[in-house]
Amino acid sequence: MKNLKLLVSIGLIVLLTVSISCKTDDTIYIINDTAKLELEFNKGLRGQEISLSLEGSNGENFSEEATFYINGSMIESSVFSSQNIGSYEVFAEYNLAGTITQTPTQNIEIIIPKNKIFLDMVLDRSHGQSPKINSYLKEAKTYSSNIINISWITTRINPDDIDPLTTIEAGYMNNNLGNPSFPSAYINRDGWFSVNNIENLVTEADGIDSSCTVGISSILNNQSLTIEINVVAEIDMFEYKLVVYLIEDNVIGPQKNSLNNNEASEWFGKGDPIPNFQYNNLYRKSVSNFLGDYMEFTPALTAFTKEFEIDIPNNYNTENLKVLAYITNGEDFIPINSQIANINTKVAFE
Q1: Does the first or last residue of the chain, that is N or C, have fewer Cβ atoms within 10 Å of its Cβ?
Q2: Domain check: are 105 and 234 in the same one?
Q3: How many domains does one find in the chain?
Q4: What predicted TM-score, i.e. pTM, was given to this entire model?
Q5: Are 43 and 349 spatial neighbours (Cβ–Cβ below 8 Å)?
Q6: Shared domain check, 304 and 287
Q7: Residues 283 and 327 in one domain
């Protein structure tokens, strides 16, 4: 009789345990909140693992309760990778209050990164040949849409004449880029433009595969800017540096113009000086150290992420601000690859 009572007690415990387990299963698999598919990155490299997640409106992570699909086929985990370039459709299924629900489809693109053509434009507002550097850039962009440029304003005429747009950093660049002529436009910090070589230099550098790629996102809150930089490479990143600058478009000011009487120049008749010359992608401020911050060792196909927070000076026009980021190899300040993005936007790997 005692054994019978013991067996009944054990049975009740088992039934209670099963009942509790079933309730737990119900709470795990039934979601009472419309959820959203989130992608770690919407672009990635061959073999790079990209995390997929399902998140509720309050930030809850329901990934374990979801089933993920790539091109219509279920995958066994919440991580996607592929060795094949191309676009892949991604969606998730989950149980929304008893109804099987599918998220809107998103796309992940697997890419081979391309090297951006990097142009340094070294200018001087008191030098009459500076406007032609803008003409060089304009011509270069007719040969490639893959150009990133930055403008530096320095002075060589009168060091005591302080220009509010002149920076010590611009002087450093002018002294270290290697061209004795001035002003100048440098391509990939390894050569410089002249009237006759722009097409050759640009077309030779265009479309070259790169080992790494850079992504940028930023959020402006009042005058405080939060920047996130992501870098991923097909090789280990060892002793790489990350360089991040704040640059500004549409900075207006007078510019001396010795081409004012040259009928063959686009600057003919614009005035000397040009009263409202437009400087674009003008260096304003270093976000990282000027020559870059060393990155921690990062294995191949693993994303390196770094966040910065800076205060924006009141004399900068936030509507015209951009973030420029590039990667160098140690003490070599030649960009391995680069990216540019307007603030308050997100630019993916390319």
Answers
A1: N
A2: no
A3: 2
A4: 0.87
A5: yes
A6: yes
A7: yes
